[in-house]
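So, could you explain the following?
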Amino acid sequence: MAQVVDTTLLKVYLECSPGLLGPLLRVKNYCDVEQSEGLLLERKRYLELVDLYHGKGLYRNALQLLQTQGKSADSGSLHGTYATVRYLVRLPADQFDLIVEYLQWPLQNDEDWPDPTTIVSMVFADDRPAAETFPRSRVASFLHQISPALAIQYLKYVFDTWKDKTPALHDDMVAAYFDMLEEKHSDSDRLSLRVKLQQFLKSSSHYSPERALARLPDDRLFMERALVLSRLGRHEHALGLLVFSVANLALAEQYCVENISQRADIFVLLLKLLVSSPPPKDSVDQIEDKRTEIHRQYVGHLLATYPQSIPVADVLPLLPPDMAFSHDIFVYLRSQLCTLDQDVRTKNVVRSLVAAEDLHARRQLSHLQSNFVVISETRVCPQCLKRIGSGTAFAVVPDERKGQVVVHYSCWQRSRSAVSNGRDVSADDSIASPLDNKPQVEIKWA
């Protein structure tokens, strides 16, 4: 009965008030799908038909209708990709396969709005709960097939907004950058891409350096290779690339500053490369002489700038005999001598303090060793006048007349109870608590 009523109501609205079709079909209804579909198609009420399909869960039918009308030149407001994209945003997360299937056409259509980057922002890089629950690796793979730039856009949103640290996604990001660099770009665009890739290689600690190194070409992208090698701890190889392949000593210096926490002798590695590494086989003598001169000048700069990070014992064997004694080397050696002198002075002060502390400890020991009591077989307790044997518990307490007395522990407890209860005790019975006055004495058995 409900189906008959709703279908009849749809027919009435078609004839009398088409504006009420939308409110009827966008809520739960019992319209007969086959009959209503024919009526709406006959009257070209495509938007209302999409609402009917959506309410009945016929998402594929709705998308097929939108795609057909989008490619038709005389479909009015449904022409183009926007209607399809807008409908894809409405679909729940469990329709991911359907979304990917019908999103290919809008993404590959650059002539219409929205453009691919806007589509990615609307469908995937969005704060909708459905967008966050999409399988991210599959989204990245799908977008990468369309364009690596779209994959980079999506993954950047995933890392910045959702703080995703999945290693596979970070590997996908590196691969997308590499594939983009393989495409043709202007020099400025290519430089911008390389800067972004270098920043990602520095900032991310979740990608696999082994996989990234396998993707890198051997004859270019030396800066990127150096960054990946630093992740693997191969600092000497990375510095060699910066010194000879990139030929940028300032970058090599910056590399040492950034990685000194990982390897304390990293500046020594750089100095070794600058003064003793063999030149390339195809170098010209004049060019090599000029480079050697520049390298040696930079050695002096490094020594004068980072003297605390370069031990003199490691540096002196590296310097070639014919290297000029420059002002920078003088500054470095003076700094090292001042440091050594300060170390000697500090050690002398520490040695004097230790000696004084040792003397004080010996005096304390001597004083403690001189303070003792002797327990003999004839020693009796002044409280109970009984002998204090070796198997008896006793206490050593101070006394005003005798200095120290030895009493049975039970007698000492009784004396404490008498004092605490306010009873008057004799001078011989006045015993202070060893817990209040803790005499440090040595017990000697005679």
About this structure: The CA atoms of residues 102 and 292 lie 62 Å apart. The longest strand covers residues 394-399.
